[in-house]
Amino acid sequence: MRIFAPEDFDTQPWKNGSGVTHEIAREDHGAGLLWRLSIAEVGTDGPFSAFPGLARVLTVIEGAGLHLHTPEGRLDALPLAPVAFSGDTPVRSRLIDGPVRDFNVIYDPAWLSAHVEQPPMGRSDYPLAPGHFYACLALASGVSVDGVTLPTLGVAQFEAGHVECPAGIAALLVRFAPS
InterPro entries this protein is in (predicted)? Predict the structure, then answer.
């Protein structure tokens, strides 16, 4: 298990230069990015960075949300409701009611699939399976993975284990699987 604390995140400008992201963790492979976890701060309406050939799951973790305008129509990114879309899709965002922070999972769909969900309250077990791994983002203190309590906005990456979410404490779990 690897633990990523907020003070260790790599803060960098967005690819399009319009804001900042806090990169939590990433893995590259010979052809480029395999997967990346980050938290973005969105303070103004505007275009999203493009990630050609990659897929993306965005989950609002703070604020009222975003309307994501795409050529195919509008996607509503509401609090704790993951929204998946292609990194090739041109996206222009509009804040619903003030700034937001969102958790982003960007990955290469030729190699992986990724699913984001809220783990249930109490203990949840995540089994070992070939090529699968997990990441748990604690949205408040009290969330633990295999008995290790995560700091608020801390992330645990693991291949198998159990997640404990006390009543009223939110977390997000990413399930990665081979494509």
Answer: RmlC-like_jellyroll, RmlC_Cupin_sf, Uncharacterised_HutD/Ves
